[in-house]
Specification:
Blueprint: E1 3-9, E2 14-20, H1 22-43, H2 55-69, H3 85-88, H4 91-101, H5 112-121, H6 123-129, H7 137-161, H8 166-177, H9 198-208, H10 229-234, H11 240-259, E3 262-265, E4 268-270, E5 281-282, E6 285-288, E7 296-299, H12 316-323
Antiparallel strand pairs: 1-2, 3-6, 4-5, 6-7
Helix pairs in contact: 5-7
């Protein structure tokens, strides 16, 4: 639904006024008619222009009585309008507060994805209104078209994901949000170990979409349980968990060696006092010069299975944040 935008001269500054089309105005009036009482109750006397009957009149009479009461004490009133509050307001914070304090508006609030699309599509005209840039009509149209195309792509992806199971949706959304799809169209350079064998590429796709890789054993050679992708990630009996950790460590170490002068695997942090104490305390990687020249930084690598059954009730982001502590 569109708005006709009119710029009012505030002397100084500009106030953008949007005149909505008929359907938008009908929806807004309907929402105000149904849930407007909630706004009056929540705002109370903190905002007298939200439909509160005789609110402005009450403010005038209240200030007059206050002035009359303390006139002899030297009281007075100073009216200041230092900023254009309409343009300075944080709209995201306003929408969030509306959702919390005005719960019945949630059913008619703009969906998050549509709000993001609207914000991206109007960035040119928004920057021009607040004085950050000059307005270019061509750039504005390009931004609108790009935002609309991206919104259509998101809708298409969402319609496909809706057909997946919850576990598969979770895996795909994690891959999209984490931007872990570069290997799909990467150049297969042998020097960078990007030259995947056909079965490696197929298994990578299977893991990406929570499918079982082909040609996997029937039983686990460590605990003799039925062997699945999830079992391979969780089984502590065999050496698969250790191999996974070491492969991540070695990959990060190889990349670090190309950037910094020295990258050492398993550097000794503290020597063992006796043979019974084992190999002592070791880090996973020691890299020299990461933040300060000629100073070694020790890294401990932790691999977390965000799809473990005990983690399915939490988002991958919250799981990783907890694991980083």
């Amino acid at each position: 639904m569109a708005n006709r935008l009119i710029a009012l001269d505030k002397c100084p500054g500009v106030r953008p006024i949007g005149i909505g089309e008929c359907l938008r105005r009908v929806i807004c009036k309907t929402m105000a008619l149904v849930t407007g009482r909630d706004v009056e109750v929540v705002c109370g006397v903190e905002q007298l222009a939200t439909g509160l009957k005789s609110g402005i009149e009450g403010a005038v009479h209240g200030m007059t009585a206050l002035y009359d009461e303390f006139y002899d004490d030297g009281w007075g009133f100073l009216l200041i309008d230092a900023k254009n509050a309409f343009n300075m307001i944080n709209r995201e914070a306003a929408l969030w507060n509306a959702r919390v304090l005005w719960p019945r508006s949630r059913t008619t609030s703009m969906p998050t994805e549509i709000f993001k699309t609207s914000k991206q599509g109007t960035v040119v005209i928004a920057n021009a209104l607040i004085g950050k840039d000059t307005f270019c009509h061509v750039s504005h149209l390009d931004a609108l078209n790009e935002a609309r195309q991206m919104h259509h792509k998101v809708q298409e992806v969402e319609s496909i994901l809706a057909k997946f199971t919850h576990e598969r949706q979770r895996s795909v959304r994690r891959a999209i949000k984490g931007k872990t799809s570069a290997w799909l169209n990467g150049v297969p350079l042998e020097s960078c170990h990007f030259d995947l064998a056909p079965f490696q590429f197929r298994d990578g796709l299977a893991i990406r979409y929570q499918r079982q890789p082909s040609c996997i054993p029937i039983k686990c050679d460590g605990c003799s349980a039925n062997f699945t992708l999830q079992h391979a990630l969780d089984c502590k009996t065999g050496s698969l968990v250790i191999q996974r950790h070491n492969e991540v460590r070695d990959c990060l170490g190889d990349m670090a060696a190309q950037v910094w002068s020295q990258a050492v695997r398993e550097p000794i942090v503290k020597e063992a006092e006796s043979k019974a104490d084992g190999p002592g305390l070791r880090a996973d990687l020691g890299i020299r010069g990461v933040w300060t020249p000629q100073v070694e930084v020790l890294f401990d690598i932790k691999v977390i299975d965000t799809d473990a059954p005990s983690h399915l009730h939490r988002t991958p982001e919250s799981i990783l944040d907890t694991g980083a502590l």
